[in-house]
Amino acid sequence: xxxxxxxxxxxxxxxxxxxxxxxxxxxxxxxxxxxxxxxxxxxxxxxxxxxxxxxxxxxxxxxxxxxxxxxxxxxxxxxxxxxxxxxxxxxxxxxxxxxxxxxxxxxxxxxxxxxxxxxxxxxxxxxxxxxxxxxxxxxxxxxxxxxxxxxxxxxxxxxxxxxxxxxxxxxxxxxxxxxxxxxxxxxxxxxxxxxxxxxxxxxxxxxxxxxxxxxxxxxxxxxxxxxxxxxxxxxxxxxxxxxxxxxxxxxxxxxxxxxxxxxxxxxxxxxxxxxxxxxxxxxxxxxxxxxxxxxxxxxxxxxxxxxxxxxxxxxxxxxxxxxxxxxxxxxxxxxxxxxxxxxxxxxxxxxxxxxxxxxxxxxxxxxxxxxxxxxxxxxxxxxxxxxx
Length: 388
Prior knowledge:
Layout: H1 2-21, H2 28-52, H3 61-64, H4 66-80, H5 95-110, H6 113-120, H7 130-161, H8 174-195, H9 207-229, H10 254-257, H11 265-282, H12 292-299, H13 303-312, H14 318-334, H15 344-350, H16 356-367, H17 371-377
Helix pairs in contact: 1-2, 1-9, 2-4, 2-9, 4-7, 5-7, 7-8, 8-9, 11-13
């Protein structure tokens, strides 16, 4: 059954790789996702050969390949959340894989078959060669290191989007956090199972490793579903915010965030007045996919300066500023007779909200009650006919 799951996973990885390759308007993250699926295919295919046909040499891949999968996932997440191309220095993430691969190549070419069997059958880790033990250590730590790193990057991104977008649907990357946590839990389970076992035993069909590969098939389906739909969040038209800002805690005072800014107080106050007037007269918040770059372009204010103005002079993030106006607009419309035949969600969508769930969540955040509760508590002001 486990071998069947591994084989299905390998076939699915190949299928997903082809789907990404034929995808129209591919971007940088799509190519990284293709590479990830390709490596996953090789991993599961060799694991299937090792376990199903007892091709013992292929078991080395279950260690070595983690040094490709982990950094590829991390670089993929980085590419999603940055507008610029990855710097060449990022290739350094793959140096450990190259070094360990060269070491494994050396072992398989320099040692006899009998010596290899003896080495891989070794259960006393203190008797392993230094290079062999070091390779095992580096490979076993690759996944947790990159999972923690990716989670840090995703948390940084979570803070960033509140200064850039007026919505979270499709940009919060919650699915990536779930995948990172799941990968970490899977790794921890395999490690604990290994620790309770009988040692290295690389030349046997290790049940713990087999379980890990079988379970990873489900993570592959999860990543394939969301990864194929996910595009890059920042583009040349919508660059990522300054890296100085999102790294700070959300509660950090504006003075700490913008201590190196060249924006003068008088200029900031004038910008703030323009923002307030524009929101009142043009109501840009009615656009459900409004970004700070859109507002900055309309006002002819640099995006980084606009973010500072909203934080310092309006005491809000871009996300909160826009959604506060959307909630206020909703409250005005439910009191307007011309909207009495509209449902709550119809009015909410017309006010710029993307979905019923986000509307309810945001409305309750600002009003401490649900939209329905608000309408019930204002029967005179709200002429809206409650939807069934």
